[in-house]
Design a protein that fits this description.
The chain is α/β, with parallel strands linked by helices. The protein contains 13 helices and eleven strands. It is globular and about 55 Å long.
């Protein structure tokens, strides 16, 4: 059986369970940690973290929640480490650009989509489940504000199962940027790009798949064709019965955008400001829609990982 070497002082460390799964060629799903540390209140954040790992296991795959603890990127967390991410005060939010500094300074932090994608691929994991991606921000022509997620996905061979991009963003512009950067998007049983909290954004997508095996087939075709190491996005909409009421979403989002302009909220502060406003303005309904999407994405990612590992 192949073993995963982890020399002393390594900045990347697999948990024993993940190391064994990699050695055996077993299915694995990466999970980000930002939703645990920054996306949910305590103690629910820990409960959701455990729940998402269990969903992946029930689908037949090994969960690998990723975070940086004391400067070391942990690929798979034990119970103690999950509790640290859920409860440690001042835990940083780390994108890809932050990883070298976090490693050198021995800082702990939760990983965003860009950091998780990189670390998962670097660790040998092909499938990653998250809620929604970052993208091109509104008023991009003035601010040039664009998530690092897009650049990372254009040069990382990983399959990301998500519910689209956050609806606070410019969705058409984000889709255009993904097309320009060569990132393949396949809708899972849908012809329209999901709207994160909403079942659909109303934007069409070119490719539709019906089964996890078809997603695995696209992954194999990526490898066979070669070319740039870009990602595959599997867009999995939140079920209609679990989506946020569209009229409520549109009203509260418009109010949030007005409030952000009035209070001159910009840069990295804009996303948490708008998402927080949506949670308060919908009495928590947006958060519940988000969690419904993440649960579905974890389940589908597990199924895709199983098909990928079996070669069918």
């Amino acid at each position: 059986m192949r073993t995963i070497e982890q020399p002393a002082g390594s900045t990347l460390r697999h948990s024993p369970e993940v190391a064994e799964a990699l050695a055996q060629g077993a299915p694995i799903v990466a999970l980000e940690s930002t939703i645990i540390s920054h996306g949910l209140p305590q103690p629910r954040n820990l409960e959701v973290a455990v729940e998402l790992e269990e969903i992946v296991r029930k689908a037949g795959a090994v969960p690998a929640t990723i975070a940086v603890l004391d400067g070391v990127a942990r690929i798979g967390l034990n119970k103690h480490e999950l509790k640290r991410v859920a409860g440690e005060p001042g835990l940083r939010k780390l994108g890809f650009r932050d990883l070298p500094a976090a490693a050198a300074l021995r800082v702990s932090g939760a990983t965003t989509v860009s950091a998780t994608s990189f670390l998962a691929a670097r660790a040998g994991i092909r499938v990653f489940a998250t809620g929604g991606l970052g993208g091109v921000h509104r008023e991009w022509a003035d601010t040039q504000d664009e998530s690092a997620d897009l650049d990372m996905l254009s040069r990382t061979r990983i399959t990301v199962v998500c519910a689209g991009v956050k609806s606070i963003l410019d969705v058409p512009a984000t889709l255009q940027r993904l097309e320009t950067r060569g990132v393949t998007i396949a809708g899972f049983r849908t012809d329209e790009f999901p709207g994160f909290y909403l079942h659909t954004s109303g934007e069409p997508i070119d490719w539709r798949i019906e089964t996890p095996a078809e997603a695995a087939g696209i992954m194999r075709a990526q490898d066979a064709l070669g070319g740039p190491e870009s990602a595959l996005i599997v867009a999995n909409p939140v079920p209609l019965e679990d989506q946020l009421d569209p009229a409520l979403h549109d009203r509260v989002l418009a109010e949030a955008l007005d409030a952000a302009e009035r209070e001159q909220v910009t840069g990295q502060a804009i996303t948490p400001f708008l998402l927080g406003y949506l949670v308060r303005g919908t009495d928590g309904a947006s958060l519940e829609a988000n969690l419904a999407a993440v649960r579905g994405n974890a389940r589908l990612a597990g199924q895709i990982a199983v098909s990928w590992s079996r070669g069918n």
